[in-house]
Design the sequence.
């Protein structure tokens, strides 16, 4: 009577991994279960090793999926252009900071920033230059705040910052500094010297959180404050009628 031929079931080794390593990994897993592999018939040994191989493979797949999920979550939180939180993630983080401020009674402020003359940059130099300007401004904002603060792009040329443990006066001073830094940006096209450079600008609205304010309410209030600031700046430079 012919006996069945046992074919060892081995997964292909990974790059840099010897053929013995996957076999040893399977046997270590079986040993961890308290099974004496040598005491079992060869067919049972082969079946257990195959099962252990499947378990190890599933572990690797799970780890790869977890890494992919974490990467996807990170990308979902990030703005498509700038290395900042997008609006959805910014509002989520703001809500979290509001909860902490409410629990511990710590101050919290929001700065809403809208760029001045940005449309003119796009119209004169093109959207590629406009994208570079947005990324440059994003870099300025990140460098100008603490690691504990939150920076996001809310859309278009609008940005916002959450300043944790910050009083209103200090936050207004920070907003004034950011306006000066952005106004120092002169946009020009070296390949088209006949085009007049554009001085970038920014209008900021700074508000302090108070109990009962949600993230949406705080953002809207800061937006309204910014709009009033922008209107006042435009009125200040508008020539008097003759």
Sequence:
């Amino acid at each position: 009577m012919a006996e069945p031929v046992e074919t060892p079931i081995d997964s292909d080794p990974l790059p840099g991994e010897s053929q013995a390593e996957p076999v040893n990994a399977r046997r270590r897993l079986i040993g961890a279960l308290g099974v004496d592999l040598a005491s079992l018939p060869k067919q049972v040994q082969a079946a257990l090793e195959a099962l252990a191989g499947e378990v190890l493979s599933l572990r690797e797949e799970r780890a790869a999926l977890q890494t992919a999920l974490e990467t996807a979550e990170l990308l979902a939180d990030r703005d498509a252009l700038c290395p900042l939180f997008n609006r959805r993630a910014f509002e989520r983080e703001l809500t979290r900071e509001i909860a902490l401020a409410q629990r511990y009674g710590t101050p919290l402020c929001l700065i809403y920033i809208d760029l001045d003359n940005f449309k003119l940059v796009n119209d004169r130099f093109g959207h590629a230059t406009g994208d570079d300007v947005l990324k440059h401004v994003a870099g300025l904002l990140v460098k100008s705040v603490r690691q504990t603060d939150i920076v996001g792009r809310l859309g278009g040329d609008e940005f916002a910052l959450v300043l944790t443990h910050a009083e209103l006066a200090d936050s207004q001073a920070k907003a004034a500094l950011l306006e000066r830094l952005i106004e120092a940006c002169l946009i020009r096209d070296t390949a088209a010297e006949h085009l007049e450079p554009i001085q970038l600008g920014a209008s900021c609205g700074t508000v302090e959180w108070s109990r009962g304010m949600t993230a949406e309410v705080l953002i809207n209030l800061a937006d309204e404050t910014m709009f009033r600031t922008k209107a006042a700046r435009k009125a200040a430079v508008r020539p008097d009628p003759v």
Observations:
- The longest strand covers residues 108-116.
